[in-house]
Amino acid sequence: MSSLFQSFAPIAAIATNPTAVRILQPFLQQSGATLWVPDAAIVDGIVDSSLAVQVYAGSLKEHLATLWENHTSFVFCLATGAVVRLIAPLLNNKATDPAVVVLDETGKFVVSLCGGHQAGADQLTRLVALTLEATPVLTGAANRANLPGIDVLGEPFGWRKGNGDWTQLSAAIAQQQLVHVVQTAGSTLWQAHLPAEHPFLFNTAPAMAETANTPTVWISEKVLSDRAAPVGCWHPRVLWVGIGCERGTPASVIASGIQTVFQQHQLAMAAIAGIATIDLKADEVGLLEVCQQYNLPLRCFTAESLQNVAVPTPSAIVAAEVGTPSVAEAAALLASQPPANETSQLIVPKTIFRAEGQPGAVTIAIAQAQQEYTDRTGKLWLVGIGPGALDQITPAAKGAIAQADVVIGYSLYVDLIRPLLRPGQIIEALPITQERQRAERAIALANWGLTVAVISSGDCGIYGMAGLVLEQLQTHEWDGQTPEVQVFPGITALQAAASRVGAPLMHDFCAISLSDLLTPWPVIEQRLQAVAQADFVVALYNPKSQNRTEQIAIAQQIFLQHRSPNTPVAIVRSVYRPDQAINLTTLAEMLQQPIDMLTTVLIGNQSSRTYAGWFLTPRGYLGFGDRPKTSAN
Ligand code: SAH
């Protein structure tokens, strides 16, 4: 299964006739979905045994009820009316209902029917449409306004939802009402990429949000008291709770201790990033139970690392017992300072809590991190976008771009794929010279838990960003797993250029970049000599720039030593882009054509020829009319 569909799994697909099966087939192949059919005969001759097909008995309505609870998404190829009737009795709450997507039986349209935001149906619809080359039908107002869904805003950053009148708030936004935003914690990246015409008023003072009669998005480590106007609360997970406790303190005492401290300080339990303590407590049963109950990570530190942390309330007694003067405060501070070395702050110094009639005692301190804990495994998708035109990008690469939280690339390439971007995505377009910064930025965001698509023109792994990102990952001592890396191939410039002039690459060929920015010129010259002599067809990348004009002339001279002046040469500029220019010429005359950094130069071998305006390299050295040794195929 492609990792693109991972977040929608398990997916159930439903078809009731062979036409529907045929339409769903490419989607089934890529998504790993299970196809449910009423009769095994309808898939005969259409799907192969590698796909998961299951037959249901009895009515689809009853069968759907059994699938509903344990599937994340449903994809129907059925009339929308039928689907509406089928799912109506099962719909419960949009925070928990699965995504429902419907394909029409001509395969032209994919409709996001239900669960557009929170269940991800809009996203799934976009992906299915890309897979089937169909049109996505998204009817939510946020799509029209090019805004992120307010009820999914914090998902990329792992924020947890607090109270929210999400439907009313979304309606207010759809009606273009003014919406206050109070953000006291968490990433503000989402703010940087809004359309010009957004309804948000930022920097509203927290106190004003408590009283104002205006719809409000509250993004904070704190809770917001009840108020009249609709509000949506998101809690970035910035709070690390440092805990020290007596052996055997029950989970209930630890949990109520935490709740009490949070209430006293108006802090949101949903903003807890995790629990921090000393390694001696790594097996403390009550603590482990609390972590499990609230789905929190437990970070444990040695006494040696804890004793070096400056804390407001050190204790000599604790130092004598466990070898560090502070457990709760020091652990909270250490946990809240992840690798980036940001500063963090102890916002609640240690308090000791006991529950009446219960054994044990717990010490609690809270530190606030600058960057929220996302609880997500980041992904780095290294994506080749082909030479330029959207229809020359693979559906998988399109899916990766549409699905990523962040798209990073050189600004020209970001412009080329702009139609594939979706509302709410974080787009970082950087100048062409800043490749290493682009790679570092992508790695930092992925290490933090985001899904980042790094785009290169052509193929990402051919003079592209893939190599650079992997090199940088190595300098970070990457373990090969986290963040997950996936490379999406693209049509490279030499293929694209070749396709426009005929079949020049029909026999052995190679690519040489003439850029000596990263490779010493003598090495390049030596390679040119070797391949010219060995009669390879050659594609020259980076042939000439404003400051680098000599190299292409030297290359020409080297080839002239080994090949006829009449050898065909194609000079192909901006292929598959609006300003495409193609010149078919010869080795002797090639420098008379304009050549620049947007050009690929293809030089034929000794057998290459032109015919009726086409460039062709025969498949072998047998010459025209000679019979090949084996049958032609
Ligand atoms: N990763 C890219 C190559 C990047 S190096 C790929 O696989 O295609 C940049 C060089 O690629 C340019 O100097 C030019 O030689 C070539 N190139 C990239 N896009 C091109 C296009 N649309 N038309 C012609 N040449 C192109």
TrEMBL record:
GO molecular function list: precorrin-3B C17-methyltransferase activity
Domain spans labelled Cobalamin synthesis G N-terminal: 62-142
Keyword Methyltransferase tagged: yes
CobE/GbiG C-terminal domain: residues covered: 239-367
Entry keyword Repeat: no
Residue ranges constituting the Cobalamin biosynthesis central region domain according to the UniProt record: 148-236
CDD domains: Precorrin_3B_C17_MT
Pfam families: CbiG_C, CbiG_mid, CbiG_N, TP_methylase
Keywords: Cobalamin biosynthesis, Methyltransferase, S-adenosyl-L-methionine, Transferase
Pathway(s) where this gene product acts: Cofactor biosynthesis; adenosylcobalamin biosynthesis
One GO biological process term: cobalamin biosynthetic process
EC number: 2.1.1.131
Domain Tetrapyrrole methylase: 379-590
SUPFAM superfamilies: CbiG N-terminal domain-like (SSF159672), CobE/GbiG C-terminal domain-like (SSF159664), Tetrapyrrole methylase (SSF53790)
InterPro entries in the record: 4pyrrol_Mease, 4pyrrol_Methylase_sf, 4pyrrole_Mease_sub1, 4pyrrole_Mease_sub2, CbiG_mid, CbiG_N, Cbl_synth_CobJ/CibH_dom, CobE/GbiG_C
Domain of life: Bacteria
UniProt-listed Gene3D superfamilies: 3.40.50.11220, Cobalt-precorrin-4 Transmethylase, Domain 1 (3.40.1010.10), CobE/GbiG C-terminal domain (3.30.420.180), Methyltransferase, Cobalt-precorrin-4 Transmethylase, Domain 2 (3.30.950.10)
PANTHER family: COBALT-FACTOR III C(17)-METHYLTRANSFERASE-RELATED (PTHR47036)
Annotated protein name in UniProt: Precorrin-3B C(17)-methyltransferase
Native species: Oscillatoriales cyanobacterium SpSt-418
Lineage: Bacteria, Bacillati, Cyanobacteriota, Cyanophyceae, Oscillatoriophycideae
Gene label: cobJ
